Every structure is written in structure tokens, then in C-alpha cells.
Amino acid sequence: xxxxxxxxxxxxxxxxxxxxxxxxxxxxxxxxxxxxxxxxxxxxxxxxxxxxxxxxxxxxxxxxxxxxxxxxxxxxxxxxxxxxxxxxxxxxxxxxxxxxxxxxxxxxxxxxxxxxxxxxxxxxxxxxxx
Amino acid sequence: xxxxxxxxxxxxxxxxxxxxxxxxxxxxxxxxxxxxxxxxxxxxxxxxxxxxxxxxxxxxxxxxxxxxxxxxxxxxxxxxxxxxxxxxxxxxxxxxxxxxxxxxxxxxxxxxxxxxxxxxxxxxxxxxxx
Amino acid sequence: xxxxxxxxxxxxxxxxxxxxxxxxxxxxxxxxxxxxxxxxxxxxxxxxxxxxxxxxxxxxxxxxxxxxxxxxxxxxxxxxxxxxxxxxxxxxxxxxxxxxxxxxxxxxxxxxxxxxxxxxxxxxxxxxxx
Amino acid sequence: xxxxxxxxxxxxxxxxxxxxxxxxxxxxxxxxxxxxxxxxxxxxxxxxxxxxxxxxxxxxxxxxxxxxxxxxxxxxxxxxxxxxxxxxxxxxxxxxxxxxxxxxxxxxxxxxxxxxxxxxxxxxxxxxxx
Lengths: 130, 130, 130, 130
Prior knowledge:
The structure is a homotetramer.
Chain A: E1 3-8, H1 24-38, H2 44-49, E2 53-63, E3 72-81, E4 87-95, E5 98-110, E6 116-117, H3 121-126
Antiparallel strand pairs in A: 1-3, 2-5, 3-4, 4-5, 5-6
């Protein structure tokens, strides 16, 4: 199931080349994952209180077109389970249907001691496999 | 006239003390000023294309209570003209009516050569004095 | 006693106006305070492990001249004790002796429960009053 | 040829999970590339003034271990030319020899009109092929 959320590009997101600073697209995508997770009925803060954090361990990202100040960008996210311990968000950053950035974001869940833990049921449901 | 806009607190906004990193409140306030200016009918990108930037030259800020991951904060802004060349945004960052941060943000307008220019009509109208 | 530390301005620090984004000067100043505190013989991470955080509760800042990509800026910090519970960093951001930004940064110490605690001896020594 | 530069982890780099926020490693790596390019004898600001920007178009990154407040991290960079128009930085972020993050960062050069331009001689020399 596809999750969509929109954000405005502010000065904080841009750099002196006049476009969005490349690392800041990762912030937009992390906001998208946060909202996607929250849509499971449990916010990221709830997850943390339950002693679980969903963290990125690998990312493959392509910067195709630059965003600019004042743009509204859509973050489109889908999630799949790769194994008992791993999942992947496929994320697109679009502007009015035009693709700016695409990424595969591989995540794991860790507990309070930073130990790997199995994908919880909510994430399996998010992937449509729970 | 009071302008209000809301934002979610994401991981990017927090630091290892577990709260919002102090400098990031300035980003929330800058977003609030951007939306406030856009409400004049001209976006900040439009202002830039017209050769004008509204820039901060002084700020007096009080950090009263800390925001945390997952909070929704409201940025409440009002604007007044101080002189031909200067204006002040009074800005509050609130969480469900509770004051987190307050600031007086003094701004000037500069042109493409970074020369001071008089407050444009739109800003006077925003202040209710145009 | 004056503490000095230098930083380079990178793309991450700038915005689409071509200069350093105003909120990012607060990061430079926070780095300066961090190094200043570390010079007491206890790093900020040490302070945190000891259950104490030095946090900003008010800031009065003037942005005089803009910094740009590739600049080296010096953060110059002095500290004074204001009361049993409060102290102020006076901080300047300079570029080759030219003042870009100045600020009074009022700080308090809080413990793990975010309760106010008295200024520790190290901070009094930093202020030259311990 | 391997280029090395070190940075301290400050509060700004961390998030409420108590570690370095994942997107901020990209800032450390961009600083590393900036210093690497500057070592060609031409700073990034010089490159910009000459109408050329070296921009990231793809990135493959692995987050292996988390950095924390107060850590000193080394950014280790090597560069290779992939074609007339493309090059790749291989970058490692290490802490006392321990690998935290590794990435392949694919870059192109663009001119003032954001048109692709061939890799300049300085970059070929940086790659040891000029």
C-alpha cells in the first residue's frame, strides 16, 4: 500500500547552489517513513517508548532533478519485508508528478540495547504480509 | 493579524538530550515567517525573483519548555513595522496552547546587491499599517 | 578567559540566498560552547554521563554580516556566572577579525529529570570565579 | 590517493535515539569531498565562481555502527573517474579505525545552467588519471 505525504521546501532545505541540499532529501524521506509508521496506529515516539527503533542500515539513492525553494514535494512510500529481521522502504520524492529523488531504504529494528529484533507485527501488516 | 501554522517534530529536529535541538526552533519560526509572507499573496520565491529578500538581523529568543519527538507545534506570528526599513515578527512556538519558545525577530529587506531597501507595501499591509 | 575555535563554512551551512542560513550560526556557537566546556577537562558527553546538561534558556543575537561558502569563521567565547543557577556565554563569530554575528547566550544546568541544578565548580572556574 | 579529514560530533549531529542522525553522515562526507576537492588547489567556492559545481547524482551507503556525541570521526575519501562525465568518491567514516559508515558517491559536474559538463582536469588529477 502506497503512503503519501507532502512537504514545502523552506530556506533551511536549500544551499548556496540555489537548490535543495542533497542530504536534506533524506530528511523528507525520514518524515515520510515516520508518517508511514504512524499510520500503523503507533507513532514513532510510541515505538520508542515500547523500546523499539526502526533504523536505516543501507540506502541506495538517486538524485534525478533538483527541488527548489517554495516547491511542494510529495514523499511516496511503500514497504516490503525482506526477512525476519529486515525490510525495505521504496521511496520517491516527487514534485507535481515529476520524479526528483528515488531511494531504497533498508531498515532493521533494534531494541534499547541496540540489539537486532524481529520485525514486529505492525510492520508486517504495513507490508501487507502480516 | 495573527498567523498560525503547525509542524510535526521529527527525528531531524531532536538531539541526544532527547528534546528539540535549540537551533531547530529557529527553523520552525522561519517556516512560520515564510507562510506568513506567502499569505500576502507573494511567496518567498516570488519575493526572491523580484530581487528582494526579507532577512533577520536580530533575534531575542526565550526557550521555556522543550519540545519532543512526535509533538505537533504551532508557530504563531504577528508582524509590526518599526521604521521605513525595519520590522519585527513576534513569534510563539506552542504545543497544545502551552508556550515552548517565544521570540522577537527583527527583519530588514535587502536587494540583490545586499543593499537595504524600504519595507515594501505588502509588508506594511501584513502589519496592518499599509 | 577567551576561548577560540575555528570552523569552515560548508554547503550544509548555506541557503539559497547564497549565504550562511541564520539558524546555522547557532550551531557554530554551540560548537564553540562545547569546546569551551571541554576545555574545563570534562567533555559534554562526560557532563551528560554525570547527569548534567548545560542548556540554553535565552539568546540575544545580532546578525551583522553574512558568512559565505568556504569562509573560515572563528567562534570566540567568554563565560560569566550570573547567579547560583545561571550563566552567560558572550559569543562572537568572526571572519578574519571582522564581526559577523554576536550573541549573549544564557544557560542553566539541568539534571536527568530536567530539574534546575546549581552551576557546577567547573563552570565557576571557567568563568574565573571558582 | 587517499584523503583524510577529521570532525567532532556535536549535539547538532545527533538525534533523540542518542546517536548520529543518519542523514548527518552525508554532511560529514560532503565536508570530506569539499576538502578533497580543495586539495586540488581550487576551493569549492572557486569552482562555483568558475561556473562549475560537482554534484551528487547517486549514492549507495551502508550504516554499520552508530557514532555518538563527542566522537571524533575520520572521513576517508578516494576518487575515481568513471567516464568523461562521471566520477565516484569512495568514502568511509571511521572512529579510531572502526568503520561506521561507507558509501559510493557518484558525482557529475554541472555548469551555471545546470548542464552536464566533462570532468575537469583537476578532477582527473585527483583520480590519478590526469
